[in-house]
Fold this sequence. Notes:
Blueprint: E1 8-14, H1 18-29, E2 34-39, E3 44-52, E4 55-62, E5 84-91, H2 95-104, E6 112-118, E7 124-130, E8 143-146, E9 161-170, H3 173-182, E10 188-191, E11 196-203, E12 206-210
Parallel strand pairs: 1-4, 5-8, 9-10
Antiparallel strand pairs: 1-5, 2-3, 3-4, 6-7, 7-8, 9-11, 11-12
Amino acid sequence: MESVLRRVDHLVYGTTDLDAAIDRLEKLLGVRATPGGRHPGLGTRNALIALGPASYLEIIAPDPAEPAPEAPRPFGIDDLGAPRLATWAARGSGLEELVRSAAARGVMLGEVLHGSRRRPDGTLLDWRFTDPRRVLGDGLVPFFIDWGESAHPAETAARGTTLVDLRAEHPEPERVQAVLRHLGLGLAVEPGARPALVATVRTALGRAELR
């Protein structure tokens, strides 16, 4: 089974206050996140920190410039008590076939959707992804994303950190591990009091842990 780090496209760090989270993570990681852009219709905006040449940390929060959307914001942002790693996205291609193959194994990834946002420099990014609102394994099972011909967001994200480990904790680790195994993902799941993604990041300040 392929190393999980080779499959990580991005980690999703949910927060109710983007600016406060950027400040907090700058103190922890020694890097100030690059403004990403707004997600029209979803009521969110983000900022990014590269975790390698083709992976990144997405800090995502409600967008105060947009009205509240009719549907809940993704990743449980509306109900967060504190900032946290909410889920992750795995690199994928042939997403329709991936969804069908997963469904045959009892893993329902949901439909394949299209997303887009415009970077602050005006560049439009387009991607296809499995439905991130379909939460599996309490967020420890990723959604899948394909950037197609778009530039990968890590290329223009703030640099200075490297993802060196990703693991998970869950009260029922065997159940979540089985789902990940069906998807060919080698994310280790350990026993824990509550579901959590745990990322270890190498920075100029030393190693830091994100949950």
